[in-house]
Amino acid sequence: MVRAIQVGLGGWGFNWSQEVIPAVSEVEIVAYVDANPEATERVQTKLGASAGMCFQSLEDADKAVDADLVIATLRTDAHYPVVKQALQLGYNVIVEKPFASTVAEAKELVALAESQQRVLMVSQNYRFYPAPIAVQQLMATQKFGPINQVSIDFRRHAPTQGYRYWDMPDPLLADMSIHHFDLMRMVLNDDPVRVSCRTWNPEGSPFAYHPTGAALIEFSSGTVVSYRASWVSSGKNTPWAGEWTMDCAEGEIWWTSRDTRAEGDRPDIVELRPLDGQPEPMKLEDMAYTDRKGTLATVARVIETGKSPARFSSGKDNLKSLALVQANILSASRNGDWVSIEEILA
């Protein structure tokens, strides 16, 4: 059992408190932290937490309880100072994506975690579904031979789905596309080298910044990914992970994942489409924990065993996903000019 302090009890943080953390038997919450007394009062009234478990600062919680892990579920601009403080106090940390606002901050946190010999994990929850795990294995074994290209489409209509962050800078690339960018790296088991991206804000959009975009992303193996995404699409919604076509020399792998709906989640889909045969659905393995529950259970196992499993989204690994986000943002600001990942990481 890993003893944890949760820092950040706002709307999304409380969702962690209510739905995610209690479902992971390997983790026990020993303290809640939020500077807003109303937030800590909510976990007392709705979750039955005692007043003695609730604190307004991490320093106060650190003095009062013994814990192994800090679960950082705050707004993005608070990630860096809180994660830094938690690492300096000697805690392992799991933090929501993106784990820092800049690559420089992220690199500092990675170096600090290494110097403190502590685990720093970024909750890239889309990795914890059966379809991307299966596709990664298919690509590794070259099920249909060498890859030709990858196409990804993401479509959602934010105004009718409860989305309210209209003033967030880069609502597409930084808030949503980071999931897809991270999955690219995972399923291809490769890292990007350069990107070309354009974004725009359609007429009538409630967003202050660009919610729609398209990008070409070139990986070190030569694979090129074509990515198209929109937060204001009036077309048929895709699942949250998007719809992926992996075009290979001897066939195609089509897949989608994280089809969460109000009326109930739908299963992941992977369809194998051989060049000279009929499409065939692939049977996917069940998972004990998916989504954010998967990330939390994984960091608990890493703390307990000292071993990092396959696809572990450490802070060090996630630097390249964050750099991919920043490269796309920079390319879009340059009207689609190619931007190298090396330029961002430097």
TrEMBL record:
Gene Ontology molecular-function annotations:
nucleotide binding; oxidoreductase activity
Residues of the GFO/IDH/MocA-like oxidoreductase domain? 134-241
What region holds the Gfo/Idh/MocA-like oxidoreductase N-terminal domain? 7-123
UniProt keyword terms in alphabetical order: Oxidoreductase
**Which superkingdom heads the taxonomic lineage of this protein's source?**
Bacteria
Task: Return the similarity comment.
Answer: Belongs to the Gfo/Idh/MocA family.
- What PANTHER family is this protein classified in? CONSERVED EXPRESSED OXIDOREDUCTASE (EUROFUNG), CONSERVED EXPRESSED OXIDOREDUCTASE (EUROFUNG)-RELATED
Q: What is this protein called?
A: Oxidoreductase
Q: Which organism is it from?
A: Devosia pacifica
